[in-house]
Amino acid sequence: MQLKYGINMSDLFKNIVSHSKEYGFVFPSSEIYDGLSAVYDYGPLGTLLKNNIREYWWKSMVQLHDNIHGLDAAIFMAPKTWKASGHVDAFMDPLIDNKDSKKRYRADVLIEDYLEKIEKKIDKEVSKAAKRFGDDFVEEKFKAEHPRVSRYVQTIGEIKSEMARCLNENDLKGLGTLINELDIADPVSGSRNWTEVRQFNLMFSTQHGSLAGGDGKLYLRPETAQGIFVNFLNVANTTRSRIPFGIAQTGKAFRNEIIARQFIFRMREFEQMEMQYFVRPGEEMKYYEYWKDFRMKWHRAMGIPESKLRFHLHDNLAHYANAAVDIEFDFPFGFKELEGIHSRTDFDLKKHQEFSGKKLQYFDAELNKNYTPYVVETSIGLDRMFLALLSHAYQEDEVPDADGKASTRLVLKLPPALAPVKCAVLPLVKNKEELTEKARSIFNSLRFSFDCQYDEKDAIGRRYRRQDAIGTPYCITVDFESLEDDSVTLRERDSLEQQRLHISEVEGVIREKTSLNTLLRSLQ
Length: 524
Ligand code: GAP
Hints:
Layout: H1 9-22, E1 26-28, E2 40-42, H2 44-63, E3 68-70, H3 80-84, H4 87-90, E4 92-97, E5 104-106, H5 107-133, H6 139-145, H7 147-168, H8 172-181, E6 198-201, E7 205-207, E8 217-219, H9 225-230, H10 232-239, E9 245-254, E10 269-279, H11 284-301, E11 309-313, E12 323-331, E13 334-343, H12 347-356, E14 362-364, E15 369-371, E16 374-381, H13 382-393, E17 394-400, E18 406-412, E19 423-427, H14 433-446, E20 452-454, H15 460-470, E21 474-478, H16 480-485, E22 487-492, E23 498-502, H17 503-514, H18 516-521
Parallel strand pairs: 3-9, 19-20, 19-21
Antiparallel strand pairs: 1-2, 4-5, 4-6, 7-8, 9-10, 10-16, 11-12, 12-13, 13-16, 14-15, 17-18, 21-22, 22-23
Bound molecules: glycyl-adenosine-5'-phosphate.
């Protein structure tokens, strides 16, 4: 896929990864020891951006909904939690090794990659035909009638349904047979010498200091949701909540992913932002629809266009869910899951009731009865959201340079409210003390309200470019006129428009343009 200025999608992705490192957004973890696969550290700007996304999520969920309460549960939980939730017995991925390359893969991912190749062939035929037939082209009709394409479509359907059957029935032999029948080769070595498919539990474990052996085995939570379920009554009672109400939390989760690739898309240590909404049984679909709409609105409010987001209904529902949908984002490597919205029935609360022996029920005064509430969950990975935002914001566009000639600039068009640095204060030149003093005093006053930077190194054009590259929405330039009339230039990152303002107006203007309030208000 080609982009503007000839960057293709895989180059774009590589550029984003190296840009993240170069500007201090994301570093490989423990890099001086050659890193640790699928574990990353957030640098100074990455930390700010991540904090801003988390705050946007938190305020939109907790502050804007009077019936949603916050929680910060521990990462370690009583081991029985994971037996009850099903993670000990069923949080597995089907794994396959290649005997020649010694590489390990997820069996279902190998099959999905195979399907993607057929989908690409279909796309190629479709775009060729669309060009040939022009306005008369009807994609669905073409796919149904063109002999080769319709065969591809049918093959995809058959493979998908066999894979779904194998996954649902835990038929590992069937998955292996499918891989062999499709003649799938190891993407690295090209070898077809596969082991059998085995199940692999994704939970990391460690040892509790005071208990020896199996009794002391603890798991690092693979999702934050269970901390919410086990605290359901604590929160309900202390907040005197009536159904429907929700509990929200953000925090680290850990999964021993077999293949962890694509930078911070799939990590072994990551952060989730989850909310469980407790409702009357039978009313879950109403709230499921509400949360679907609200969450999509949340993404769109950040300026992500409709064409880059879509809903994807789950083909196979987990045994505890009666509805589930993903919000997918068009990452540089294609549409992939960004967030899940799941109607989880009363499965988790009932299981915790069974395993703990404690009653986890709600007394509904209106109905005058006790019941186990149903749960609608929204669950999004903070790191994945970070990557989505960065992929959308990273752009190379053409702007006039100091001499008016067109030049390419690299810019992060982040939503101003989420940008790590809100404004930069720049004296026009460095070696004029009156200018630097004035600029510093503006900076020292603004830093009480915003994350801002002071920069006096290099020519002004280069400083603008540096701020563009980290997504700073506004630059304030202090020049010789400023010494006479206390005015400064406010330069806007995306339009490059420059506006003259009195110093006393600067803080108010930046506040209005970069405030999280504006973003939150657009959700109403
Ligand atoms: N409580 C439900 C739950 O955990 P999930 O679909 O397994 O559902 C929810 O995960 C979200 O967490 C995903 O949509 C994704 O954004 C994020 N996520 C899951 N695994 C991840 C990983 N290995 N690395 C980064 N983010 C991940």
